[in-house]
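Example record for the data management plan.
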Amino acid sequence: MKNDLESTTSRRKFIRIAAVTGGTGLLSGTLVPIRAQEKAAQITLPTTTKEVTPFKVHVPQAALDDIKKRLANTRWPNKEPVSDWSQGVPLAKAQELTQYWRTRYDWRRVETSLNALPQFRTQIDDLGIYFIHVRSQHENALPIILTHGWPGSVLEFLQVIGPLVNPTAHGGKAEEAFHVVIPSLPGFGFSDKPTEPGWRLPRIANAWAVLMARLGYNRYVAQGGDWGAGVTSWMAKQQPGGLAAIHLNLPILFPPPPPRPGGYSVEEQAALAALAKYGSDRFGYAAIQGTRPQTLGYGLADSPVGQAMWIYEKFQAWSDNKGDPAEAISVDRMLDTITLYWLTDTAASSARLYYESFTKDFARMPIDLPVAVSIFKGDFFTPPKVWGDQTYSKLFYWNEVSTGTRFRKVVTSPRLSSPSCSLPNYAKASRRYDDGETLLQQDQEGDQMSGKLEGKIALVTGGTAGIGFATAQRFVREGAHVFVTGRRQAELDTAGKAYERPPHGRQSRRLESR
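Corresponding structural encoding:
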């Protein structure tokens, strides 16, 4: 495939992606016994080679009928004893969503949207990878690879494909066009499920570089949020030939230890408090997926309601709403994602990414490639710019949007010039970078401590006593900046003083209590 890109990346074109992302095979069905008196249609993906093979989606009607039967036969738990979402999805909301899914939802609408786009599968590192690839009609379009997270999929990018590949039809200019590549992560959607350990973020990042090279692109940019930010950051770390710059939303940013003289600023303290809140109250799903994804998978693979609520609760927790996620994301859009996970049976395989990489690869990562960042203030964690300044040596753009979350790309208007998209001042940002005016201070992190966890953040729930206390102590000795949670302030104070004692003769003051 001939690539006629100009040798110099247009950052003006590249940064436009920040406004809209923030963040022939045929599927065939067979009947596979799952119970003594019940069968469910399963989807079988075609085999792949290193050739790029066209692909179409067609889910057997039997699989869709099976969803409705299972939903109708749901055994419900008793009603929650609280009046909010603090214990999970309220029973009434669960039943309401299930009723809509069973009686009104239309999966074929999703199939039609997907099949209107060029879809492909190809084998990379012995695994079949599914991706959407839409080339722009504009001559000098810039290739970009977009990566989703969890509980996400390629579906969250469908609305932005048109404006990216054909900006002139959406209020933009021809020189702002992109060739768009959108792969499914391994174990997600219509990509194959890994059958061996080892598919961590660095391996995925390398696979994406292979994919872009296979498509004939020798100069391109990358965007990602959530796990996509992890993959994209690792691509920048590896610096494969052709990758010119990256854009991140929900970036993996933590303060470099130790704290600066004078301690953390008010803004930094707020971000650290949000991390502590996440570790004490919002971390359960990640702990389960990161330790027992297979056990979790049995329930979610067998119950569409179980699968639905596992994801529905995250739509509520991670979007701008006052108790009803439909205030931020339409019911149909939520069910599009939920149904994709159910039909492809990817509850366990997608959760394994947490097992593979959450504690190994989700760490602060200094990057020397040009980086742009968009922060959505509605997210549960919004790192301050100073952490970006200390981490990305070529940070040429930083934009903070007052509303929205990681799911913003699901719900924003597709029109790039719409105020609802919060268009960044990309012209100013690109001029400052092109003039050689760096927007980033050089990373001043010293080499004062060493250890296996040097530079990482550790959140230890119940770290004031017992196993939690011992675990936190070990993390401190290995160089981590540790946050612990507990029920009583006195216990936290006592633990904090204990952690301050120098382990093995070294000075250490790396623990924060919340």
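Summary line stored alongside the record: The chain has 19 helices and 15 strands.
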